[in-house]
Every structure is written in C-alpha cells, then in structure tokens.
Amino acid sequence: MDVSFLGGPLPQRGVGVVAPFDFALDRELWRWVPDEVSLHLTRTPFVPVEVSLDLARLVSEHETLHDAVQALAAVAPEVVAYACTSGSFVGGVAGERAMCAAMSQAGEIPSLTTSGALLEALREIGARRIAVVTPYTRSVTDSLEEYLAEGGMNVTGRAYLGLTRHIWKVPYRDVVDMARQAVVGATDALFISCTNLPTYDVIPQLEAELRMPVLSANQVTMWAALRAIGAQAVGPYQALLDPAARSGPAGMSVSPSRLTVTDPVVESVLEAVEAVESVVDEPEAALAGAASPSSDGDPGDGLDPGFGAGFGEGPYLDDSGGPAMG
Q1: Which element (helix H / strand E) includes 137?
Q2: Domain total for the chain?
Q3: Is residue 320 part of a domain?
Q4: Is 18 helix (H, G, I), strand (E, B) or coil?
Q5: What is the pTM of this model?
Q6: What is the pLDDT of residues 86-116, one digit of tens each?
Q7: Residue 236 falls within a domain, yes or no?
Q8: Between the CA of residue 140 and those of 89, 193, 228, 315, what are the distances in Å?
Q9: Does residue 315 belong to any structural domain of this protein?
Q10: Which of 67, 133, 153, 250 could cross-link to 148 by cystine, CB 3.0-4.6 Å?
Q11: 39: which strand partners?
Q12: Are strands 111-113 and 79-82 parallel, antiparallel or unpaired?
C-alpha cells in the first residue's frame, strides 16, 4: 500500500529530561509541551534511600548527571533539563550552576535545572516575596528556603507534608489546603515544589482564588526548557505562561466563565473556581488566603478525586509529628 501521500512525520524538536529514578509524572510534563516538541526522558540509577537531603545529593552527583546526559545526547535534544527540585537546590546557587555546567559539558548541549528555572521564573514575573508549599520533610523544606534566600527571595510563609515517599500520590485537594495555609501577609507568588507532586490542573484554580501567580516545579522546568529553544509552554490560564494574567489582583480576577476551554478536566477546575469565588466576600480575603470552600463542595472535588486515595485525611505533619507549618 502506497502511503507516500501522507507525508511526514512532522519534524520534531527535542527536549531532554533527566529525572530521578522515582519520578512518576511523565504525563504531566507532556501537558505543557506543544505538538512540535518531543520529550526524551531518562532516569538516574535507583538508590535505596527515601526522599531526604541525602537522596537529593545522591541523585544530583555530577557523575550520575554526566552519564544521563550522554545517553540523551544520542537523540540530539536541543536542551537538557534536570527535573528535580531538591536535587538542584541542595547545593545552593553555586551548586546549581555547577550542575548546569557539568551537564552542558557532558553532552555539549545547553542545560538547566528545576531550581535554576524557578529563580528565572520568579524574576520573569517580578516576584520576591514567596509562599512555599512542599511535600518534603522540615529539613528539605529548610534547604529550599535557604536556596531561595540566596537567590534574593524572601519566603513569607510555608506549608509542607513531611513525606519521604509516594509523593506522586498526593491529591490536588491536599495541595490546595497547603497553599491556603502557606499564603499569609504580603506575598507576590506561590511556589509548589517537587517535580513528583501533581500540579497542572490546580494552578489556575489557585491563581483565581489567591489572586497571585502560582508556579510549580514541573511548570517552571518545562517553561524554561521550551523557552531555551524558542518554543512556548502551553497551559490553561497560568500567569507564568500568559503575560496578560500578571497584572496583580485585578488581572487575576477574570471570571472563569469568560474563558474558552475544551479540556473537560480544565472545565471542572474552572467550575470549582467559580464555586470558591461565590463565597469570597472581598478580594482582600482571598489575598490573605482566607477564602474557605462552600459546604456543598471542596475546590479539590472534581480534580481527579481518585488520585492518591488515603492521603489528605489528617493534618499535615512535620518531622516531629507536629503541624507542618514553618
């Protein structure tokens, strides 16, 4: 059968991704990627260590990254991204820069990391006062705060789960609850850390409720990698990806009903946003994170409700068993 009339396949541009061995959100990364770009993923070797500062150091060793980038170089990506937040902030700003240099040297390919992309994204939106949400333990969250401070940012509030494994199973409702706890006082933006924490569908909801830009680890990684090759990340009403949505509370308060969407998941998110906004009396209340869900529906409902069953049923705990607010 002659199929020459089909033409193609269409030319593809490649983005290489080095992820930790336990990374489980390949599909989420793809959701930010335009059709003409392909992701080429590889993983670091398995090590029998739970999520901790020790693991962050192990999965970011230069020799490990060197081997991973060399493997990716076989398919000639235009850029390589190291998709691990803790692994790229554990060594501070200097450590992150050294990682980029080591990866670039290994494959002679421009390279970046999640934590480097985070600082770049915060500068892009003009944010310096940052609320932080993480699934990590206290010690790993402390390390993130130190990295942000070294990068010229001020952490205004934070919330964390204290998890050491199975982070990809955390449901959206837990992320929403932590965000509300973390945003206190004058805050320019919220950052949701960890590339293994699902965030894609919850970003527009939180931006509408909190009236501020919301960044996540996977979002900034894909945004920076795609920008490095002259492409643009895709995503529904996300301030980092849409400059028109960065004009403060007024710009963040566009009614979701005025947005045109075709993705049923996004539609469910926007419906949840409208339910939240209907019970917020004043914009200032939302800015302070004071908005609360109505009795007939949690904003987390409808956001993949079966995801991570068993989580979100108790208080957030820190390393000592106390409330996970820092």
Answers
A1: none
A2: 1
A3: no
A4: strand
A5: 0.77
A6: 999 999 999 999 999 999 999 999 999 999 9
A7: yes
A8: 10, 11, 29, 19
A9: no
A10: 153
A11: 15
A12: parallel
Which residues touch 258 (CB under 8 Å, ≥6 apart)? none
Instruction: Check which CATH number belongs to the domain holding 282 and give it.
Output: 3.40.50.12500
Q: Assess if residue 297 is contained within a domain.
A: no
Amino acid at 320: S
Distances in Å between the alpha carbon of 49 and those of 11, 58, 275?
Answer: 40, 9, 42
Structure tokens at 40: 């080429």
Other beta carbons within 10 angstroms of residue 275's beta carbon come to: 17
Residues 16, 77: contact at Cβ < 8 Å? yes
Sheet holding 37-43, edge to edge: 37-43, 13-19, 79-82, 111-113
Angle subtended by helix axes 92-107 and 138-150, to nearest 10:
80
> What is the domain extent for residue 242?
13-287
List the end-to-end C-alpha distance of the chain, in Å, as a whole number. Answer: 65
C-alpha 13: how far from chain center: 23
Tens-place pLDDT, residues 218-269: 999 999 999 999 999 999 889 999 887 776 544 454 333 333 344 455 456 5
**Residue 87 and residue 59 in contact, taking contact as beta carbons nearer than 8 Å:** yes
What does the alpha-carbon distance between residue 278 and residue 275 come to, in Å, rounded to a whole number? 5
